[in-house]
TrEMBL record:
<feature type="transmembrane region" description="Helical">
    <location>
        <begin position="144"/>
        <end position="166"/>
    </location>
</feature>
<keyword id="KW-1133">Transmembrane helix</keyword>
<keyword id="KW-0812">Transmembrane</keyword>
<feature type="transmembrane region" description="Helical">
    <location>
        <begin position="26"/>
        <end position="44"/>
    </location>
</feature>
<feature type="transmembrane region" description="Helical">
    <location>
        <begin position="106"/>
        <end position="132"/>
    </location>
</feature>
<dbReference type="Pfam" id="PF06182">
    <property type="entry name" value="ABC2_membrane_6"/>
</dbReference>
<keyword id="KW-0472">Membrane</keyword>
<feature type="transmembrane region" description="Helical">
    <location>
        <begin position="64"/>
        <end position="85"/>
    </location>
</feature>
<feature type="transmembrane region" description="Helical">
    <location>
        <begin position="204"/>
        <end position="221"/>
    </location>
</feature>
<dbReference type="InterPro" id="IPR010390">
    <property type="entry name" value="ABC-2_transporter-like"/>
</dbReference>
<protein>
    <submittedName>
        <fullName>ABC transporter permease</fullName>
    </submittedName>
</protein>
<feature type="transmembrane region" description="Helical">
    <location>
        <begin position="227"/>
        <end position="248"/>
    </location>
</feature>
Amino acid sequence: MTRYFYLYIHFMKLQWKRYIQYREDAVIGIIGYSVNTVISIYVLKVFLDNLTNFPGWSTNELVLLFGFVTMARAGWNLIFINTLFIGDYVREGTFDVLLLRPVNTLLLIIFSKIDFESIGEFCIGLIIFWLALLTEFETLSAWFILKIILLLIGSILCYAAIHLFVNSLTFFIKDVYSINFIVWRLDETTRYPNSIYPGWLSKLLWFIPYAFIGYFPLMSITKSLPLLADLGTISAGYIIFLLVYKIVWKFSISRYHSYRQ
């Protein structure tokens, strides 16, 4: 595990050097992502301004949810964005090369692209979340901060599991672009409570399972849950990712045959 961590740091340094070769493009990219997040904040403001009563949710809790999910999605973009392009590796035949290398195949795919443009989005989400957190609580203990960090990592892994599941289908149907697009748009729904959506969509978001990205983590942060419920919420993202990796991903690559054959 330590070896993979140092490998990731090494690849990140290489990716950063390549990224800043074109400084103007890098700055524009980061600004572009940040502007998109600011627009989303404005949409949230309009939503809150027109909100007269939202059972079970205070205005500050909605802001906390928005900030938390923004950080989680930006974290997924930063680290796992290249899993969206697994199909390209398969169609181009370069997946064969990855299988021959003495490093975990999925890690090689993850290492190959790091989306530094998401840093601005993450920072904006962090500021929003932190300010709302200080409004919600008078004091913040070290354990509470650690719990939030673990919940955030779990949410990032839950995003990663959902997209890894979808892109593992490329070993069977070759092109998952349309499914990727639908799931990518559904990601946006996690920034708001499920109850604002139509019944069928709300049930779908519980099933996928988007609820473990924003809803349950926020309940763990803002409510006094039993210890078992707290531990279950913290570990959910890790377990979901592990299950998708061990069952879906491993099975999918075991059925792989070269696209060029």
